[in-house]
């Protein structure tokens, strides 16, 4: 993809960082359960690369906080660290993993980034944002147990979106058909 097309996709993902949480936050605690703001950031990193994913992971939640108050300013710094890590890591892994199977590339990148982002966010919370107040049990509960529905949604929805965009010819196919004789 050209940088112009990547910029457009990134802008759309940043807009989704504002719109998706609005749809989910009508239900109490839906943001921490369904993780709607994670979807466009992860998608941006997968489609556009690490630099655009990183930008989306930083700018998207800031815009959402400014326009809607979600996430609240108190939670914004730790979310910025987590979402920036998601965008950065999905882009890095996706650009370096070439298994010749799009499903494998997507899931390795997606799950790797989801795990790494949660570890980075937990470390940042434990050392910077809430030193001495975060236990391993609290980290596991908030980043894995409470958010399990969101994790499942991301694992199912994001690859489906990538395939739909490929079929619509909005993004290039990662592995064009190789001759069956080879």
Return the CATH architecture. Orthogonal Bundle
Radius of gyration: 17 Å
**N-C termini distance:** 27 Å
| Mean pLDDT value | 91
Total of domains? 1
Strand-residue proportion? under 5%
Order of helices and strands: HHHHHHHH
Strand-pairing-aware structural class:
mainly alpha
CATH top-level class:
Mainly Alpha
Provide a quick synopsis of the model.
The protein is an all-alpha fold. Helix content is 75%, strand content 0%.
Account of the protein in words:
The chain is mainly alpha-helical and 182 residues long. The protein has a single domain (3-167), classed as Arp2/3 complex 21 kDa subunit ARPC3, CATH 1.10.1760.20. Helices cover 75% and strands 0% of the residues. It is built from eight helices and no strands. The chain has helices spanning 3-24, 30-34, 38-48, 50-68, 76-96, 102-129, 136-145, 148-167. Helix 1 packs parallel to helix 4 (50-68), helix 3 packs antiparallel against helix 4 and helix 5 packs antiparallel against helix 6 (102-129). The model has no long low-confidence stretch (mean pLDDT 91).
Keywords:
single chain; 182 residues; mainly alpha; Arp2/3 complex 21 kDa subunit ARPC3; 8 helices
Q: What is the element layout, followed by pairings?
A:
Blueprint: H1 3-24, H2 30-34, H3 38-48, H4 50-68, H5 76-96, H6 102-129, H7 136-145, H8 148-167
Helix pairs in contact: 1-3, 1-4, 3-4, 3-5, 3-8, 4-5, 5-6, 6-8
């Amino acid at each position: 993809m050209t940088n112009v097309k990547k910029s457009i996709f990134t802008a759309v993902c940043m807009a989704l960082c504002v719109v998706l949480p609005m749809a989910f936050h009508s239900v109490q605690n839906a943001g921490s359960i369904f993780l709607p703001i994670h979807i466009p950031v992860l998608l941006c990193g997968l489609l556009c690369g690490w630099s655009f994913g990183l930008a989306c992971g930083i700018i998207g939640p800031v815009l959402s906080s400014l326009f809607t108050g979600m996430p609240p300013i108190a939670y914004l710094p730790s979310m910025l660290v987590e979402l920036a890590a998601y965008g950065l890591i999905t882009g890095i892994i996706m650009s370096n993993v070439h298994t010749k199977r799009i499903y494998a590339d997507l899931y390795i990148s997606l799950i790797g980034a989801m795990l790494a982002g949660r570890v980075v966010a937990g470390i940042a919370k434990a050392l910077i944002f809430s030193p001495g107040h975060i236990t391993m049990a609290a980290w596991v509960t908030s980043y894995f147990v409470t958010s399990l529905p969101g994790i499942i949604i991301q694992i199912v929805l994001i690859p489906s979106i990538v395939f739909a965009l490929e079929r619509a010819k909005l993004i290039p196919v990662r592995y064009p058909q190789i001759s069956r004789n080879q």
